């Protein structure tokens, strides 16, 4: 959260191993003798010594040190968060301000409240003008300015227009963007638009920032009355493809990817494109699997004496109709099993199960129908070998595609832009959740229900103007997905928004005020013309035959199978089983059996720690997946609301999120605290545990519980139990 503007100006300088330039920059600020209440912040990225700190102290500047190079945009955002001025001056160390320039910029901003960013007139040290105001980049300009293609057309008209070479730069005017070496940004505009995009490590963060200012209704102006000298050390200049040029080109392509209309349409169809790519990959790898099976059979025939005589190897053309038929059956089966849907992409375990099921069905169908395609016999060995090879290659191919997409997203390219339209308090909560759990391939854009459109919006009623401004903003921001939160105070606006969004073709998620009571099993229904949600009944299916039978069968099997490990642990630890008090179903206390000591058995097989409680599952007092049992101390900390209406479901034997990675990436995750075996959840995670418990009776389903149980049993770390 930024501090309110208590000063006129915060000067933010990002320094990277250039103390000589920094000394000149700070000295020039001192000589400017401004009448403004000013502070200077020096953000030092990966310093080799304390030279920048000493310079900052000498000139009365605040100093922030980053042990590694965080990048320009991220360091600027640190300064924005620390600064307390009404305006921010972003200044490179190679820029020297002239007397009166700071006052001229701030006075201009005060006279023009609709301007979000202003840039001064920049000169080179030799007195020549620098063309620091430019039009936005397009792909042809990027190619001509940042690749060797520019040498073929050095005087291209679009480049002259981009650099605005035919303008004398002597008048104040609105422009597309100004060079980030020296720009003044209004605090209110930054609070509205956000800081610099940290995906741009270096270069193009200024272009992107100005673009976003325009899209949110703020003006960007060039102010020649403010003059500064820019030494302009271009790291992107030099040889054919220097590291600086590569970084500049990568940032340029990232900017184009972010704002391109063509790539925006691509993103909207990303699920279909990914499904098509997966189908092509599956077809290629299934064909490769058959060829591999054929050549394995051929090689074995050569290697094993007499096999080829008894069972001859048929020519590859015999299988000319079999291969496409088998591929088609496999892909059709995969599609029927949902293996080309978006949700399967994020669940490797479920995908593996469905793939194995699909290849089994394909093998049965193909083996039963091979007679339709040939009058000559085919090698059954080759046909049978094709199926496990197909399963392995298809699974590897899908994992390769998944890693390719993850690699692109790790570089923060091809993110899916998500618009969150919500009350301000929900936006702050959503920001905290993204910060805590990660962004999952999203680039969130926040639009509060309370936000008013700029005065430049077309004249109309207040409600109509607010609606049209939001819809235009969604189009301009290249939004690919929308989440809308209900608001008690903005109900008409939300209702109109939902209607317009449904007709826009964008994927929309609607979060009502009572979202905590809506489970995964809820369904939409019509009641007398009203759209409603049929809520899942608490506890529904908990005592159902399938769940109870599964608990009995698994607990009996595990009691028998793990009994030798139980005896081995008791012999090694020489300690028995103790019972600890926990709070379970409907707030009722019960005794949870736990081993009293440690042993090598428990360290080698962590799941064995749950063995003493299997009897509770067999008796129906616990289930494999259920509520997280609370200690008496946690029960007291849970608060009167939770204690007044505790969830009515069986306590669970297994930790639904056993690993730290799963806790970080799951929306329902809770963190484990430190401690000894059987240790506890951290106190600051109690609310997450309570959230899981409240929602569990509403969102349970057997398939989800089976996957959670498999994860918990396969986790190699020590299971955690809530403890005081």
Key phrases:
Rossmann fold; 724 residues; four-stranded parallel β-sheet; alpha/beta; globular; nine-stranded mixed β-sheet
Q: Indicate the CATH architecture of the largest domain.
A: Alpha-Beta Complex
Tell me the name of the CATH class of the largest domain: Alpha Beta
What is the number of independent domains?
Answer: 4
Mean pLDDT: 80
Discrete helix count: 27
**Rg over CA atoms:** 32 Å
Give the strand content. Answer: 15-25%
The overall strand count is: 19
What does this structure look like?
It is a single chain. The protein has 724 residues and is α/β, with parallel strands linked by helices. The protein has four domains: 7-259, Spore Coat Polysaccharide Biosynthesis Protein SpsA, Chain A, CATH 3.90.550; 270-410, no CATH class; 416-513, Glycogen Phosphorylase B (Rossmann fold, 3-Layer(aba) Sandwich), CATH 3.40.50; 545-714, no CATH class. Helices cover 46% and strands 15% of the residues. The protein has 27 helices and 19 strands. Strands 1, 2, 3, 4, 5, 6, 8, 10 and 11 form a nine-stranded mixed beta sheet that branches. The protein is globular, with a radius of gyration of 32 Å.
